[in-house]
Amino acid sequence: MPQTPDAMVTHILYHLRDRKKDFLPILAGENGDLLRYFSRTYLARLAEFYLPCRDLPETALPPEDFILNYLSFPFTGMLRWWIKNKLRQSPEQLAKYFTAVTGLVANKKAP
Questions:
Q1: 4 phi and psi angles, rounded to 5 deg
Q2: Are 81 and 98 in contact (CB under 8 A)?
Q3: Cβ burial 63-95 (10 Å sphere, 16+ → b, else e)
Q4: Structure pTM?
Q5: CA nearest 82: which of 8, 7, 12, 3?
Q6: Lesser CB count within 10 Å: N end or C end of the chain?
């Protein structure tokens, strides 16, 4: 799996685009819970890159499931926007948009 937020999101988006017949009905549907669950599954490794939490003392860190839930909302919004725009943007461009607006940064080493 790629080791930077941009590369990780790009990797996910390529999978979604390449298997769009399987995923588009889920992503375009109105079932928000299913979509957020799907997003959290793909976003699990991104939580470690979340910038606002990086300098907090260990006792002040929000739980990982909180961060995943938080990140799943902009991720699902991004996917719906991408679908609405007929997947015109490349996965690389979309990943840059996502990491720019969510505060995910690449300068933390992945475990």
A1: -115, 155
A2: no
A3: eeeebbbbbbeebbebbeebeeeebebebeebb
A4: 0.71
A5: 12
A6: C
